[in-house]
Design brief:
The chain is α/β, with parallel strands linked by helices. It is built from five helices and eight strands. Strand 6 and strand 7 form a beta hairpin.
């Protein structure tokens, strides 16, 4: 069964970057990373979630963290050059990024945002991030993703 290419996948293709699209069964009641990891049969720490936050100084930025983690707002504020930050409201996600909850990819947002990827990503040969739609993940080498989106590292 051929997978439909998402905008994120097309951008990786255009850059000549190697990745794999991995489908999973969507459950509208369970959009969290733990459900995705279970569907993929993968370690929760290898399935990364993409969170969009707003800082008091720099505005919007992105944290890509393991599925088992909650974002530490103090750390996120510090690494992004803010004094304070908060998650954006879910209703803001689509207009600001072009993505919906459960399908937000760090690749191919409406406009590039400062992005920070948790440094534990580098412990894996490859990690999973959303391909930009619910039900589809991109499996990619972490340093390749960091380089492609110009990400900083989110400290352990």
């Amino acid at each position: 069964m051929a997978q439909q290419k998402t905008n994120a996948a097309r951008l990786l293709d255009a850059a000549g970057i190697s990745y794999t699209l991995v489908p999973y069964e969507v459950d509208e009641e369970h959009l969290e990373a733990s459900h995705v990891a279970q569907q993929l049969g993968e370690d929760l720490d290898r399935v990364f979630k993409t969170l969009v936050l707003r800082g008091d100084r720099t505005g919007l930025f992105v944290c890509v963290i393991p599925g088992s983690m909650e974002v530490d707002l103090r750390v996120a504020a510090r690494i992004s050059g803010n004094k304070n930050c908060a998650m954006i409201h879910v209703k803001e996600l689509l207009p600001l990024t072009g993505y919906i909850r459960g399908g937000c990819s760090p690749i191919g947002m409406k406009k590039p945002l400062p992005t920070f990827i948790h440094e534990s990503a580098l412990l894996w040969d490859s990690i999973y991030v959303s391909a930009g739609v619910r039900g589809l993940q991109i499996c990619i080498e972490p340093q390749t993703l960091i380089d492609f989106v110009g990400a900083g590292l989110y400290p352990l």
